[in-house]
Amino acid sequence: MKRILPLFTIFLLFTYLSVAQTQISKKEKSALIDLYQLTNGESWINSWSLKAPIAQWHGVHIENNHVVRIELPKNNLQGNIPYTLKRLEHLEVLNLAFNKITGLLPSTLTQLENLKSLKLEMNDIKGDLPWDFSNWSKLEELTLFNNFLDGSLPETIGLAQNLRILNLSSNNFSGSLPKSLERLTKLESLGLLGNKLDGEIQISFENMTNLFELVLSHNRFEGALPNSIEGLSQLKFVQLQGNRFDTSKGLENIQSKELVAFDSDSDRLDRKYSKLPLSRTRTADTKFENNN
After folding, report:
1. Tens of pLDDT along 195-220?
2. DSSP 272
3. What is the pLDDT of residues 1-46, one digit of tens each?
């Protein structure tokens, strides 16, 4: 015991010093407390003890004395997202998915210039996206599916040129696809299922060479299916059904050898691509996708 006790004491001292040295500014702490209070923190599944060191708060990750990640999915958050989250200037990840968040999305979120991932899917958020995406040059993932968002997609969305995953499925967005969408050349997954988007698709997909999932189904698109889809060699999941396309000639020869699922309103195309030697099957429907 005489040998073990000093080692244990040193360990406790080291732990205490590590926690004590993890300090964040009053500004950042106040933003966290606003989140706690406005989303009924006392009823969270994993709640915060506000008297404990912030480094011990569930889902809060600190680096170099700054909050860099908040990860609270499936934690029974109920209420609104505070506009004061803009104070977390070093935040890279905000994951509040699968909760009961209501109200509008604060436009101040776009002031988080270091944000790489924003996941708010499966909540009850409403309103539109009146955002200026110009500050989101580092954003790689934006998932807002299964909410009650509406209005048109902002033209500035193309300024978030590092986006790899964009999933806005199962909302009430309307209007045409913004032309700037074709600037998202790093996109790997685009999910727009189950909205009220309409008109002819006048964007080109040809430069989205990393795209493996394209879900445009159950909207009100019309005109011709965009033939720029045909040359995307990485495509695995394509869903185009439930629209008003009047011709599918542009998709006669999809180049991808990775295709796993293809659904459209053309029986001829569906039969053609269903005969491919598929290695596995999956319905390319991101409506209830959960990666947490």
Report:
1. 999 999 999 999 999 999 999 999 99
2. H
3. 444 445 554 444 444 434 444 689 999 999 999 999 999 999 999 9
pLDDT at residue 172 is higher than 80: yes
CB-count burial class (<10 Å; 0-12, 13-18, 19+) for 33: middle
Look at strands 66-71 and 60-63 and give their pairing. antiparallel
Question: If we measure between CA atoms, which residue out of 196, 214, 206 comes closest to residue 285?
Answer: 214
Sign of CA dihedral 151, 195, 108, 105: positive
Per the CB < 8 A criterion, the answer to whether 144 and 109 are in contact is no
d(CA 137, CA 111): 11
> Can you give the C-alpha Rg of the chain in angstroms?
23
Q: What is the DSSP letter of 104?
A: B
CATH topology of domain 128-274: 3.80.10
Polymer length of the chain: 292
How many other CB atoms sit within 10 Å of the CB of residue 149?
A: 23
Q: Rounded CA gap, 61 and 56, in Å?
A: 9
CA distances from 125 to 103, 147, 162, 170, 288 (A): 5, 5, 25, 12, 16
Domain boundaries, the chain: 128-274
Long-range contacts of 256-260 (CB under 8 A, 24+ apart): 256/232, 257/233, 258/212, 258/233, 258/234, 259/235, 260/236, 260/284
Task: Give the start-end residues of each E strand in 93-147.
Answer: 93-95, 100-101, 117-119, 126-127, 141-143
Greater model confidence, 13 or 192: 192
Contact yes or no for 97/122 (Cβ under 8 A):
yes
